[in-house]
Design a protein that fits this description.
The complex is a heterodimer of chains A (about 400) and B (about 240).
Chain A: H1 3-16, H2 18-56, E1 60-65, E2 69-70, E3 73-74, H3 85-94, E4 98-113, E5 116-125, H4 129-132, E6 137-140, H5 145-149, E7 154-157, H6 159-166, E8 175-178, E9 181-189, E10 204-208, H7 209-216, H8 219-223, E11 230-235, H9 241-255, E12 266-270, H10 271-314, H11 316-324, H12 329-366, H13 374-400, H14 404-409
Chain B: E1 4-17, E2 20-33, E3 37-41, H1 48-55, E4 63-68, E5 71-72, H2 78-87, E6 89-92, H3 104-113, H4 123-133, H5 149-161, E7 167-171, H6 179-194, E8 198-202, H7 206-211, E9 214-219, E10 222-228
Parallel strand pairs in B: 3-8, 3-9, 6-7, 7-8
Antiparallel strand pairs in B: 1-2, 1-4, 4-5, 9-10
Helix pairs in contact in B: 3-4, 3-5, 4-5, 5-6
The chains are: A alpha+beta (about 400), B alpha/beta (about 240).
């Protein structure tokens, strides 16, 4: 007897016991649905993390001046000697793996164009900053070395600024005033979207770092000649970023003359590591939940086995009859196996639908990133089939080993 | 006389129950020819059903040989026996043994699903023909629970016929039916026998004994009487 005949016999038998078939499938449905939801939520948050890292750049290191020891007590962050243009120069000379390097002096000040004004983040940068921080110039051009060095009154503006100050019109060539100093807009930045912390990355104006230092960011920056605020650099991807980080730290200790054993007066941070660590817990939790869901699937399989055993006993006379009209043991074994597998497969399809639906609902209602993982759907369906074969085999074998006459006489 | 269809040689069947051995059949030797209509009678526990189960390959003898069409069933594998039940034998039971919540047609198709014919033809057509033969063409799509007892037994007979067996084995086929319906079933058996099908009917019903051509009387696992009934007697 071929598989189509067996399947049709099994399907008829399942239909005859529709309610029980459904209850039997319930375990599998719930198991599969929870696997799908858990894995989707977990992959969603993983994808979100990777996207954040991509936005920030996976090979970016930041260096900030740290706390200065003041007579045995820590000063606040940034109280140590600032980073300067000299640091950039010596780092560049020392390490060939540095691809781009830039200072960053940030101030929050109002910008004015015509009758519009908008308080925004005005950041003084070197030309490398654009590539280091993964920005893309949409229109116009980046700063020249000359503009960066000589305090050029030029600016690059983010998309939010275009909306707020220019009502969406092209700002190229326009003059905006920041702290009453006129800046010519020479370029616009491609949108980056919202940051992890809810602030828009696009609410920003870039100006040359020397201009920021001298005219915009205030006294503290001005007080130190060549202050560059925070430092960002990208490391050549061939270089392991952890080793690069260590090299940089040692070198900085050397040039900042920190005694052996004393604490660093600067911080080197690796963006992607930071984000990964911050999200590791949620990823682990997601995996644990998925594992729990997989256990639910196994429990569902045990449910299938129980019901199949009951079913085999209840249908003893039917089995006897089938044997009497010419079913071979193999036919009976296959019938009950196919019944178990069919239950699992139908259950898993319903489970997939339920899981996908729940994932979609979670995404809409709770605003958790959910990524539907297509391979996991196929894995879920095939593992359900395996569960069916595994847990269906014992009851099926029991059915096939019945003695025809005893089965027929069973009351 | 036609050729021998069934031959029992010193057939024994013992059951072991709680340390005690019950001899259900003791040294039964018997020949049944093609085209015979045999009624097997006797009190409960006399061995008549046991004989039928052995002949139908539902059970295996403890000792002795059972030959069907010259083939000894003792040497057959379980698959071969299944094939034998499928093609050579048609069973009819007292309680009909139909699949519940299934149509008459699907019930009749059942043996065809297990058939190993190279060229089985159209299963639905064959099942329909079998139902027509028992006079139930108009009830094909009824579920078995919607049919009367007599109709259900006719579905069972159609199921027994559908694979064109050489022999029908019936165990108390009229035991669950009223007299009028019993007579209809017996008329149907008569038609089938006239068409050349060998019938072996285990029964308590004297009506059956009267319409059959041969009566075997069993007692305590042995044949105590073997009567050839005159054609047409009692009808």
């Amino acid at each position: 007897m071929d598989i189509i005949k067996t399947t049709s016999i099994a399907l008829v038998a399942l239909r005859l016991n529709a309610m029980r078939s459904f209850l039997t499938m319930l375990g599998i449905i719930i198991g599969i649905a929870s696997v799908i939801v858990m894995v989707s939520v977990s992959s969603g948050s993983k994808q979100e993390i990777e996207a954040q890292i991509d936005r920030l750049g996976s090979n970016v290191l930041s260096i900030r001046p740290g706390a200065r020891m003041m007579g045995g007590r820590h000063g606040g962050s940034g109280t140590a000697a600032p980073l300067t243009e000299k640091h950039i120069k010596s780092l560049r000379n020392k390490f060939a793996f540095i691809e781009g390097i830039s200072g960053s002096i940030s101030a929050t000040v109002p910008a004015v164009y015509g009758n519009n004004n908008w308080t925004t983040s005005v950041i003084g940068i070197h030309a490398d900053y654009i590539s280091v921080r993964q920005w893309v110039i949409e229109e116009g051009r980046n700063f020249t070395e000359r503009e960066v060095k000589s305090g050029g009154k030029v600016a690059l503006v983010g998309q939010d600024i275009i909306d707020k100050l220019f009502d969406g019109a092209s700002p190229l060539g326009a003059r905006i005033r920041i702290k009453n100093i006129p800046f010519t807009v020479i370029g616009t930045l491609q949108a980056k979207g919202a940051s992890n912390w809810g602030r828009s990355y696009d609410d920003v104006i870039f100006i040359p770092i020397s201009t920021s230092r001298m005219r915009v960011s205030g006294r503290q920056a001005r007080s130190v000649p060549d202050n560059i605020g925070n430092l960002y650099l990208t490391v050549n991807l061939d270089r392991d970023i952890g080793i690069a980080e260590e090299d940089l730290r040692e070198f900085l200790r050397e040039i900042r003359k920190i005694a052996p054993g004393a604490q660093d007066d600067f911080n080197v941070a690796n963006f992607s590591e930071f984000i990964r660590a911050r999200n590791e817990t949620s990823a682990t939790l997601g995996l644990l939940l998925a594992a729990t869901a997989a256990i639910a699937l196994v429990v569902g399989g045990i449910g299938i086995m129980n019901i199949m055993l009951v079913s085999v006993t209840e249908r003893t006379r039917e089995i006897g009859l089938r044997l009497a009209v010419g079913a071979r043991r193999k036919d009976i074994l296959n019938q009950f196996l196919v019944e178990a597998v069919t239950l699992c497969l139908i259950g898993s399809l319903v489970g997939v639908a339920l899981g996908v639906g729940t994932g979609e609902l979670v995404k809409r209602l709770v605003d958790i990133p959910v990524l539907l993982n297509i391979p996991i759907i196929f894995i879920a369906i095939s593992s359900a089939a395996l569960v069916g074969i595994f847990f269906g085999f014992y009851p099926a074998r029991k059915a096939s080993r019945m003695n025809p006459i005893d089965a027929l006489r069973y009351e | 006389m036609d050729k021998v269809l069934i031959e029992c040689r010193s057939l024994c069947k013992d059951y072991h129950m709680g340390g005690e051995t019950i001899h259900a059949l003791r040294n039964v030797s018997l020949q049944i020819h093609k085209g015979e209509y045999v009624a097997i009678m006797g009190p409960s526990g006399s061995g008549k059903s046991t004989l039928m189960n052995l002949v139908g390959a539902l059970d295996v003898p403890s000792r002795g040989d059972l030959l069907v069409n010259g083939v000894n069933l003792a040497g057959q594998s379980s698959d071969q026996l299944a094939n034998f039940r499928n093609h050579t034998i048609g069973f009819v039971f007292q309680q009909f043994n139909l699949l519940a919540r299934t149509t008459a047609l699907e019930n009749v198709k059942l043996p065809l699903l297990y058939s190993h014919d190279k060229n089985p033809g159209d299963l639905t057509r064959r099942a329909t023909e079998a139902l027509e033969r028992v006079g139930l063409a108009d009830r094909m799509d009824h579920e078995t629970t919607q049919l009367s007892g007599g109709q259900q037994q006719r579905v069972a007979i159609a199921r027994a016929l559908v694979n064109r067996p050489s022999m029908i084995l019936a165990d108390e086929p009229t035991g669950a039916l009223d007299t009028k319906t019993s007579i209809e079933i017996l008329d149907l058996f008569q038609e089938l026998n006239d068409a050349g099908i060998t019938l072996m009917v285990v029964t308590h019903d004297p009506e059956v004994a009267e319409v059959s051509k041969r009566n075997l009387m069993f007692r305590d696992g042995e044949i105590i009487d073997d009567l050839i009934v005159a054609q047409g007697a009692g009808s």
